Automatic annotation (TrEMBL):
Transmembrane segments: 21-43, 63-84, 96-118, 239-260
A biological process term (GO) from this entry: protein localization to plasma membrane
GO cellular component term of the entry, any: adherens junction
Alphabetized GO MF terms: enzyme binding
Keyword terms, alphabetized: Cell junction, Cell membrane, Cytoplasm, Disulfide bond, Glycoprotein, Membrane, Transmembrane, Transmembrane helix
Compartments where found: Cell junction, Adherens junction; Cell membrane; Cytoplasm; Membrane
Organism superkingdom: Eukaryota
Predominant location: other
SS bond list: C158-C176
Gene3D superfamilies: Tetraspanin
The UniProt record lists the keyword Transmembrane helix: yes
Name listed for the protein in its UniProt record: Tetraspanin
Length: 276
């Protein structure tokens, strides 16, 4: 015999409902924090430099503070839809939320497939185009400069492509035809020993004139390999770890999509019960 359903019976699972709510509330706060940090850095840079160039998509992608704010906005909107949709049992918001997660999942899978399928020559063309933009923007954008210096010093690399330290010949300050004292040089973050041990001070001139030296001689002063090759080698050495993390993220996204669709179905059943 079936259990008789009382007047207070509901198809909506409180566990599923509040699990989605709490999870999205955390991401909603995180998205708001990203917006605040990104906008603060963007306004601070605007006040310091007085000019921010946003003419092309590359300018937006290389503007780290604006990129953080935009990503935070996406996280804020999507998690808000999931949070309110679960709390108020709104199927429209839940459909929007699950659709956004599905699109994100497909984009991630598409990027992973393209990374394996696309030929290395096409990767080279993309790297070359992007490298020229990044190297050229160094010194024009303080946030980008700090990010490049951090990456080069931590990953022990110089430049981006397989040309390594010679990538900096594309920068107007380090180009050998430049009237600057930094001509034919590289940023101090490329130097193997940029910090003086005795004084603790950074020698910003340690990379001056290194472009005039062959690789064998330059390697005694600076890191000569490009950062993309270094990161790619690191990824190949830690392929199983990266694959495990990617699989965990993908399964987590699918699980949350499943929860959202489950709650959506339960709400529809409850509405149908009310109508009958």
């Amino acid at each position: 015999m079936h259990r008789r359903r009382g007047p207070n019976f509901t198809y909506v699972s409180g566990c599923v409902k509040y699990m989605i709510f709490v999870l999205n509330f955390i991401f909603w706060l995180f998205g708001g924090l990203m917006i605040a940090i990104g906008l603060y850095a963007f306004i601070d840079k605007w006040q310091a430099t007085g000019l921010i160039k946003l003419d092309t998509i590359y300018d937006v992608m290389l503007n780290i503070s604006l990129l953080i704010a935009l990503l935070g906005g996406v996280v804020f909107i999507v998690s808000f839809a999931g949070c309110v949709g679960a709390l108020r049992e709104n199927t429209c918001l839940l459909k929007f939320y699950s659709l956004c997660l599905l699109i994100l999942f497909l984009v991630e899978m598409g990027g992973a497939v393209c990374g394996f399928v696309f030929p290395r020559s096409l990767h080279g063309l993309l790297e070359l185009s992007f490298t020229e933009r990044i190297v050229h923007a160094y010194r024009d954008d303080p946030d980008l400069q700090n990010f490049i210096d951090f990456a080069q010093s931590d990953f022990h690399c110089c430049g981006l492509t397989s040309d390594g330290y010679m990538d900096w010949s594309k920068n107007e300050y380090f180009n050998c035809s430049s009237p600057s004292v930094e001509r034919c040089g590289v940023p101090f973050s490329c130097c193997i020993n940029a910090t003086d041990i005795s004084s603790g001070l950074v020698n910003i001139m340690c990379g001056y004139g290194v472009q005039n030296s062959p690789v064998a001689e330059a390697s005694k002063r600076v890191w000569t390999s490009g950062c993309i090759e270094i990161v790619r080698s690191w990824a190949e050495r830690n392929l199983y770890m990266i694959a495990s993390v990617a699989l965990g993220v993908a399964l987590s996204q699918l699980f949350v999509i499943y929860l959202a669709k489950t709650l959506e179905g339960q709400i529809e059943l409850q509405k149908a019960r009310w109508q009958t």
